Fold this protein.
Amino acid sequence: MPTFLLTNDDGYFSEGIRALREELRNLGRVITVAPDRNLSGVGHSLTFTQPLRIRRVEEDFWTVIGGTPADCVHFGYYLFLEGRKPDLLCSGINEGPNLGEDITYSGTVSGAMEGRILGIPSVAFSAFGREEIDFVEMAKVAREVVLKVLEGGMPEDTYLNVNIPNLRKEEIKGFLLTRQGRRAYKEKVLRLNDPAGRPLYWITAEEFGWHLEEGTDYWAVYQGFVSITPLQLDLTNHRAIERLKGIF
Ligand code: MN
C-alpha cells in the first residue's frame, strides 16, 4: 500500500485538497500537511526566522499556522513520516492554473519542488478554470496521473506540473507532455485609497492571456488535454555558458 504526502497552497480547508485526499485515501495512506490560510503566490519560501505551531485537523491531517507549502512538506517528511520517504508527494489541487512563468510564484508547484529536493517523487496539480471547478471530477483525473507515476516511475531529479482542464472526465482529450509556456500579460499595480485617503496598492493581473504556442502547457489545457510538464531543480541555462565564456 503506497504512502502519500499531501500539501497545497490554498489552505487545508480548500475543496481541491479535500477532493484529492479522498481519491488518494482509496489508494493508500495519506499524510496531509497544509497551510492554515490561502498562500497562493508564496512561491518556495521557507520559514526559518521564527518557530511555527502545528494543529491536528483529523487523523493524518495537520495544518501549520502561518506555514508555507515548503514548510508543510518539511514537517510532513521530518515529523510525521520521521524521515521515511513517501511513495509520492502531491500538491494541490490548486484553485486556478499554474502555467508558464506563473509557476515561479506558485506555492503549489513549490510544494512539489520541495518534495523533489528531499528526494521524493512529486507532482503538483492545478485546475485550469476559475469558476465552478468540479474538484471531485478533477481528483479522478489526478488519481489516474498518480497511478501512472506509481506504476511507471519518475525520472531522477524530475517533478511534474500537472494542469487539468475543468471538464467532465469523458470530455478530456487525454494526457499531453508539454513544455513551460509564456504568459502574454504584465502584472499591473492598482492604486486605491484607504478610508483616511492614504494610498493602498494592489498587484493585479487583469489582462489575462497566453502565447498559444504548440506543445506548451497552456496550449494543451486550452484544447482540453491534461498538461504534464516535467520540471527540474537545475535552473542553469546550460546553453548560455558557452556564450558567456566570451565575457568572463
Ligand atoms: Mn493557490
In short: The radius of gyration is 19 Å.
